[in-house]
């Protein structure tokens, strides 16, 4: 079943296939929705994905913050949150209550309407991203045939909220952070989209569900994952870096660099408005991790996943396991990598990532037309390694001039 609506139309047959309790569940469904008009089923099919997205993923966000703070504490030889609840498990709830009750301070000269609208606009695109992420076999909130294109369009829209917040604050540090955010998202969106083009070329579809299905089969339902191809591994690295930069995760958190511009675009935000900016950033990071899993790590595919009730449960388990691994990877990078400078950030995007993403598209074409797989493996690997070494050599030969610092008299 590809949609909730199709599931509801055949729910009794599906529920009867569940061992032990299938008959009871089928009778219960028949008593509640048996013979229900089409508009009722359509309304439920619309409401269920919305309720799932707005309940499950914000909960994941809440406890991701706890895991991140604990992990960063461990990396930095600290304990991390451990006061609120056993092992600090109630810390996210305490943080939410604190931010809800803090005073909302708005600068006198700020554009008050845009200042209020910006954090709300930062959350909406992040939530919409989850609508095209398949979490299991046939389980996707909305199966768009242009799902990947929709995801990129929505993710780029979030930068408007950051610019709105920086501009409406009437603060030079906020505006500088907003301009950095715009430049960064535009710079890293290009190689990220080109990295995704390689997957679209290999699959022949923009549907996220079709991309996940294309990686099924093989040894233990694993060997067909795109990350185990030369072009897929390079695309995975390029897309992961671009996704981290787009969601402003360390070491790409230039728009809010506290050591340079106080807090960037959200310098003049406090209370729950500040929390909404953080919610939007984390949800975008989780959603992009889900899209990365779908495109390169087989999506919901894994040993034991497949059709049927138990196969569907196993596929959901594999998706969230991979999503957790991607989240842990971003936390690990945040705790171990220093923030890069603005010039390094832009140079890396335009001089390394962009050429490599174009080279990777050629590698996909080589993989497609060279039908003898050992030759395809050797040819695409040599092509990618050659260009990677060449681009690094060109970047290393650039002359770095000594900086001169001048102070106002």
Query: How many E-type strands?
Result: 0
So how many helices?
Answer: 15
Count of the separate structural domains: 3
Gross geometry: globular
Strand content: under 5%
Molecular structure report:
With 409 residues, this protein is mainly α. The protein folds into three domains: 1-36, no CATH class; 51-101, no CATH class; 107-394, no CATH class. The protein is 68% helix and 0% strand. The chain contains 15 helices and no strands. Helix 6 runs parallel beside helix 12. The longest helix is centred in the first third of the chain and has 38 residues, at 38-75. The N and C termini lie far apart (72 Å). The relative contact order is 0.11. The mean pLDDT is 83.
Keyword list:
0% strand, mainly alpha, 15 helices, 409 residues
Q: Would you spell out the secondary-structure blueprint of this structure?
A:
Elements: H1 4-9, H2 11-16, H3 22-33, H4 38-75, H5 91-101, H6 112-129, H7 147-168, H8 172-203, H9 208-214, H10 230-246, H11 258-261, H12 271-296, H13 309-336, H14 342-369, H15 373-396
Short description:
The chain has 15 helices and no strands. The chain folds into three domains: 1-36, no CATH class; 51-101, no CATH class; 107-394, no CATH class.
């Amino acid at each position: 079943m590809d949609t909730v609506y199709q599931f509801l139309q055949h729910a009794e047959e599906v529920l009867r296939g569940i061992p032990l309790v299938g008959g009871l569940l089928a009778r219960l469904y028949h008593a509640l929705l048996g013979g229900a008009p089409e508009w009722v089923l359509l309304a439920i099919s619309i409401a269920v994905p919305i309720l799932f997205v707005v309940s499950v993923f914000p909960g994941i966000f809440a406890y991701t913050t706890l895991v991140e703070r604990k992990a960063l504490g461990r990396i930095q030889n600290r304990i991390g949150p451990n006061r609120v609840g056993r092992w600090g498990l109630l810390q996210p709830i305490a943080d939410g209550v604190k931010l809800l009750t803090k005073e909302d301070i708005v600068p006198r000269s700020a554009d008050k309407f845009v200042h209020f609208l910006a954090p709300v606009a930062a959350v909406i695109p992040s939530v919409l991203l989850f609508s095209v992420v398949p979490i299991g076999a046939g389980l996707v909130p909305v199966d768009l045939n242009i799902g990947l294109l929709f995801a990129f369009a929505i993710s780029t829209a979030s930068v408007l909220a950051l610019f709105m917040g920086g501009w409406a604050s009437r603060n030079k540090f906020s505006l500088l952070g907003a301009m950095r955010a715009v430049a960064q998202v535009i710079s890293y969106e290009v190689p990220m989209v080109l990295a995704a083009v390689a997957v679209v070329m290999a699959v022949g579809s923009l549907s996220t569900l079709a991309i996940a299905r294309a990686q099924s089969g093989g040894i233990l339902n694993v060997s067909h994952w795109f990350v185990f191809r030369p072009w897929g591994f390079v695309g995975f690295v390029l897309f992961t870096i671009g996704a981290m930069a787009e969601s402003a995760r360390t070491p790409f958190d230039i728009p809010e660099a506290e050591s340079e511009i106080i807090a960037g675009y959200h310098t003049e935000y406090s209370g729950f408005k500040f929390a909404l900016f953080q919610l939007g950033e984390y949800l975008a990071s989780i959603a992009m991790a889900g899209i990365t899993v779908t495109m390169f790590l087989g999506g919901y595919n894994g040993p034991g996943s497949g059709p049927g009730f138990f196969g569907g449960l196993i596929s959901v388990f594999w998706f969230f396991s991979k999503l957790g691994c991607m989240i842990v990877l971003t936390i690990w990078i945040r705790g171990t990598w220093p923030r890069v400078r603005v010039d390094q950030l832009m140079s890396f995007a335009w001089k390394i990532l962009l050429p490599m993403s174009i080279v990777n598209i050629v590698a996909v074409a080589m993989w497609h037309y060279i039908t003898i797989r050992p030759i395809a493996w050797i040819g695409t690997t040599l092509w990618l390694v050659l260009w990677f070494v060449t681009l690094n050599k060109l970047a290393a030969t650039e002359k770095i001039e000594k900086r001169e610092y001048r102070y106002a008299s």
